[in-house]
Amino acid sequence: xxxxxxxxxxxxxxxxxLVIGCxxxxxxxxxxxxxxxxxxxxxxxxxxxxxxxxxKLRDRAEIRRMMAEAAAGERWIMDGxxxxxxxxxxxxxxxxxxxxxxxxxxxxxxxxxxxxxAGTVRPGMAAGCPEKIDLEFLRYIWNFEKNETPExxxxxxxxxxxxxxxxxxxxxxxxxLLARLQTPV
Length: 185
Prior knowledge:
The chain is built from nine helices and eight strands. Strand 4 and strand 5 form a beta hairpin. It has helices spanning 27-38, 45-50, 60-71, 86-89, 103-117, 135-142, 144-147, 149-159, 171-182, and strands spanning 2-3, 16-21, 42-44, 51-52, 56-57, 76-79, 95-99, 164-168. By secondary structure, the protein is an alpha/beta fold.
């Protein structure tokens, strides 16, 4: 894997950026800000591909078709996980930003998000999918590093080992990365 320090992230050359990481890590918020700073379209996967009203998961073949169509675009920032679709997204990706924050932080952010948006559809989520939280989702977050990281790593090494991967372990790094775009060179 081609790990790159956030200080050296090739942002100005990136036309297609993939932002991945555990739920609650801040992918969508970061992606929206990065999209605005770079003038790229923002594609939240939960909203655009996965969920139909009532938290009904879209058909897998339809998800993959829609994702392939979006990934074929010349310019985008796509945020979301789904290691099972990295084979579609990685070959077109110029840069991966991987949020790898602590499970405690991700859990606390998800609980705060649920509290803030309980019963309503939060920004960036599919219509008809009010914010919810359950034990299965909390377990997913708790076990994300153990269960998802090996597959994400394998997918990167299989489909795009040369792509620059910026790992962010702290929100301060994400904020500094965004601030770097605001600072004239």
